[in-house]
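Task: complex structure prediction.
Instruction: return structure tokens for all chains below.
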Amino acid sequence: MKGFTSYLVARLGTSLVTLFGVAVAVFLLVRLLPGDPARVIAGLLATPDEVERIRHQLGFDRPETVQFAIFLGHLAVGDLGVSARTSEPVARELASRLPYTIELALAATVVGSLAGILAGVASATRRRTFWDYVLSLGSLGGISMPVYWSGVLLMIVFAVDLRWFPAAGASQPTSIVLPGVTLAFFSMAFVTRMTRASMLDVLRQDFVRTAYAKGLDGRRVVFRHALQNAFIPIVTVIGLQFGNLLGGAVLTETVFAWPGLGQLLVQSIEARDYPMVQGIILVYATMVIVVNFAVDMLYAYIDPRVRYT
Amino acid sequence: MRFWRGRTRALVSTAASLAALLLLAAACGGGATTGTAPASEATSEASEGGAAGQISPDATLTVAVGVDPDSLDPVQQTTTTVSNIVDSAVETLVTVDQDGKLTPLLAESWDVSPDGLTVTFHLRSGVSFQDGEPFDAQAVKKNFERLLDPNVKVPQRAPFTVIQSVEAPDDSTVVLHLSHTSPALVSALTATTAGILAPDSWTQHGNSYENIVFPVGTGPFAFKEYVKGDHVSFDRYDGYWGEKPYYAHLTFKIVPEAATRETMLLAGQADVIILPPISDLAALEQNPQVKVLVAPSDRTIFIALNTQSPKLKDPRVRQALNYAVDKDSIIKNVLFGAATKLDAPSAPSLFGYCPVSDPYDYDPAKAKELLSEAGVSNLSLKFIAPTGRYVQDFQAAQAIAGNLAAIGVDANPETMDWPTYIATITRPLAQNDLDMHFLGWAPSYLDASQQMVQFEKSQWPPNGLATSFYTNPDVEALVAQADQEVDQQKRADLYCQAMQKIWDDAPWIFLWTQNFPIVYSASVTNVGYLPIEKFVVLHARPAK
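Output:
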């Protein structure tokens, strides 16, 4: 257990270094974007005096180094600053949006992973048959379909024609279904392909033949013996996929008017709201770090040979 | 393979057939849409009557808009959609009607002193704010003083700084003392920026004097809540002084994607939407379940020509570019008809507008002639246009480049995101290497003075947005005179003369005013517009 504790400490250390790196990068990147936040906020009709006053109120008239020192100082005590666009604390706004993004990301991950694993197993076990080709084609489609296309397609079918689910917004419990499925398509495709590859590898191994030779039921061999051994790369891809999924969530949230962080990120970049963009990217980075950590923890559960030292 | 059988196989094939069905259903989606009527809402609302004057105990009207408010504080907001939302709860002294004419609202009448330095408003009596506070001259005075307070962030303060002091001699009279004559001030006071809030509310409901998050006004709907990124909602204010709204609740859904707004309307999740995908306008007009209102607006769309660029200094070259562009065809084929060709350097709804004598009809032969008269050949111009800011902006820019290529002018447009775009076009002349850029201008109120700022040297970037770097001493003299002229008829004549001169000098390629499409469910009626890109739903009611 001692080894595990020092592993945890080291892991936490690298996570903090990563977050610091992200903070520096995002601070610089938003300021490298051309465009003037004070002008965007003031609107086209504002006079130069008003624009200047707003710039001063936002603190963007100070040298970048001073702004950076203030940003880090505040960050150290957990203060993300005040939004340039809405004059409200960034942390408060993030707190109100985060649950929506987590709900969407979780729904998409769970649905996408389950469907992806099932499709991948089906594909691998019926290799080079009609169904294998159909599923491969389907997952290729999933990767290729942009969410603003597949999302609108789902809306037309399930909201306009069938009226089963709300088209957009987050006002009803069933509102999650369409954005969740849209985003799940995206991750399902990757999981299907990884499951298929990993299963094909495992199914070729001796212990699978032994299991069949023992006279075990086919389904038991596939799901208990083969799938469990194929799991590590699948879980890895689900973890890695999570970062992509957050990226996809930015579009999905915008298409479905889902009030999460992604929609806020788009608005904030359009308004050059530096403090808000910084806050959102830091939250995203934290989520990716946490998920990757969880995936590493899962390895030991899946494969008892894995040890953390 | 052989060990894969039984239920799982059935499951997989079912899933696949479902997927196939889904694609099929999607393919015939359009046809099916027209078949299914939102019967439930139509009948239930019709049975409630819905004639003027009636009110519903609990019905909700849902409007889908594209912009998430940055602020609900009348003085801080800068976006038309946001001011449109705020207008539900907050009223101004004066407003405009559908034709853009000044109309009383919280003020019953007003008069301007002969020297033009004093404006007196006579306020409506018997009006109270949504929190019960009485509306009176003191409240107006406090609001105007807040509007002018430099400690408050007011991006659009400029037209009001002429107010030197505000006096409230009695409960129903407000007197504004001006530092110089400002004939357009009353018009400026129609802007939501000059909306009147209940002063006592400034320290309640989470508000502070500097930042209002919970606006309390005198309007027909009282603000209820704002859930960021999702909706802003209002409840009917039963103490409203005017005609009470039919709907008990009014909700603005925030839906950034145009296609999603359209889908929500078709799915019955929204009753009214603004700005659907412009390419779908024709289909929506054919759909009996919805009504399309294509409202005129005050937003002029143009290509600003850098009149100081050596290539464009000769007015004949700029005129040639105007003759070269086939505006009618572009409006029809690229903008799906959602625009009206310009016949003056301003929209028709502005005070001081007058149509010019020669509207630059499409004439490529004349364009070529003017170019050769000016001794210009092989003209190559640096051209930029935004994407998604105005209706079909970049697409229109490409079509225009095609027109220009036909007279031998090379001007291929480039695009960039909006903040970058504004930063690029507002570079001072010395650092500005653009020859032409695509832009829209909507004056903050319907007065030619707000359009003329595009043509004054004092407004050249970085001081203003006169991005064509145009200057003509005659125009500037006419405008300066008009901006001070108290006699409104003389004032209109002066602007009219200025407009004709500007037109002939051609600092822009004059294009069109952009229309503002509002689409609403056929089960709703009494949806209107103001010619300032605003929709009017406060007195909407179910159609019979």
